[in-house]
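Could you join me in thinking about how sequence relates to backbone shape in a protein? Would you write everything just below, so we can both look at the same thing?
***
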Amino acid sequence: MHFIKLSQNLPRIVQIYTTRMKTLLYKDQKILMTNTKIGYRKALMKNEIMSIKILIPDQYFIDEVKSDEDLDIIIQTMEFTKPEERQHYKGILISILNIMPYSLIRDKNSGFPVAFEYVDACGYMRHQFVQPNHRRQGLGKAVEQDICKKCINIDITPYKWVGLFNSSVYEATMRSGFWTLWEDNGEPVKLRTMKQTTANMPKP
């Protein structure tokens, strides 16, 4: 992550930060570039992916979002969501979960959501999260497999972005055997995200 100062021709927007991300596609899909359009082509591995058995410990089960409390837990674990933005984002998240695939795993004893991930309105998988006390049990892998199956069922190509700074997640993703890196001319396709801020605003 690094900072770029914008031109004074852009008033009130003082600086942006860009995060370079790697874009990965589930291996049963191919992505083709044609001018400015993106095309998707299904490959023969689709049936193999759909036949994967999702394995999780007996104390957990895959469920749905059922309450405001579930929504609050998901939103509170979002890294870049400020407390004052959460109520506004709640309505957006409800709309997303009503129309897009998502996955949620609960603890049988407490009913608490311990792992989740959803597909954004733009179509990419985001916010994979496992509660700290429930990690290293395969729950992250399970929600990812579950959501990929749901995507393929409705003809959505599963894809996600992994931050270049998050090397351990990237390496684990590539070791899984189910993802392929989207490349252009032999180089990884990188996404840059931008955020408006008033920090260190220069004097007029």
